[in-house]
Amino acid sequence: GFLDHGAVGNEEWNPWEGDEKNEQVASQQRYEANLKMIKNARSHLEQTSLRVQIWGKAAIGLYLWQHIFGGQLQPADVTAQWREGSQKARKTYFSFITGPSVVPGYFSVEAENVVLVLNGREKAKITYATQWLHYAETLIQTRKIQHVALVLLGNEQCNNEWIQPYLKRHGGFVNLLFVTYDYALVNEEDIFQWPLGVATYRNFPVVEPSWSMLHDPRSYLCNFLGTVYKNSSRETLMEILKQDGLDKLCWIAPREQWQPQETNESFKNYQDALLQSDLTLCPVGINTECYRIYEACSYGSLPVIEDVMTPGDCGNSSMYHSAPLQLLKTVGAPFIFIKNWKELPAVLEKEKKMSLQEKIQRRKKLIEWYQNFKAWMRQKFINTLENSFLPSDKG
């Protein structure tokens, strides 16, 4: 890909000017010059290339690898003790390992640069995460590795104070932090917001858009399958849906208690609901951002998002004022944002009047946006690592 096609063919031999021999010499010189250019480019690539090993110790690592990077894992069996994959991107060679057998000290560290994927959502998870951080720190101290970046499933109220002492800026060893939710300390320098993504811990798949997914009429205006917490806006949503008989037009399946493990049947129902509805209702839970948003995008069902800040320490960063969902809003997510579920009947009224053709266009736009979003996140992630880990050419 380094040849300049213009330079190769633009001095073609002309039988009426000069003789053939001169042209052969010139051609040979151009050929050698191009070879030299390719060689230099290759050696430059080899000099600057980066090797990064990603240790996936939280389910969010699968979203990073399979959904954002589009990477494969061997073996394909999700219950395997050890799974791995690799990929070359820009100047970087990435390898990814995950599974219960990936334990500190019991696998080979194959790169000087490491991305650790950890869960810091609650106390027990943080205890486990810190063991991994201490292991990485030991490897830094003994010069086995040079750089560490962290992808963190943050706390839903953004109580992530425990991680701060590990960051370079506070005297720690972690160069970069990619963290979920609208964490107030996101600064786009060494702390970046990362998407929550789909529920890979429930084996939500990478969905390839099909012709029928884009073009077929869908049976329901909207769907909501989920837990209805007492005194939450979800109760309000249920009341509003019942009022005008709107629940008859939508696939609504509320439950009173959250279930971490899906049955095969409940998971199939959920996927069918996304596939069969034009809109997916996303009422706030503990945080405004939820897996449902990304899962709906996967199936071309437009998220209708309750755009309110949940209690806790999220939002209000010095950088961003349009929280919640700052990351998604920054990249122009084509969702419907509402402040109160009382706005829903008007949304559904408008929905009834839409033609299939308009809905098809909207689905295409949504799926294309989501694919571009994942590609953009991948690019941003790689650029950030390369800018931070590669020696700079300055001086």
From TrEMBL:
UniProt GO MF annotations: ribitol beta-1,4-xylosyltransferase activity
InterPro entries according to UniProt: RXYLT1-like, RXYLT1_C, RXYLT1_N
Highest rank taxon of the organism: Eukaryota
RXYLT1 N-terminal domain ranges (all copies): 52-195
Pfam families the record matches: RXYLT1_C (PF24785), RXYLT1_N (PF24786)
Keyword Membrane among UniProt keywords: no
GO biological process, one term: protein O-linked glycosylation via mannose
Chain intervals for the UniProt region annotation (Disordered): 1-25
UniProt cross-references to CDD domains, sorted A to Z: RXYLT1-like
Entry keyword set: Transferase
Cellular component terms per the entry's GO annotation: Golgi apparatus
Domain RXYLT1 C-terminal: 201-390
Protein name per the record: RXLT1 xylosyltransferase
Organism of origin: Pluvianellus socialis
Gene (UniProt): Rxylt1
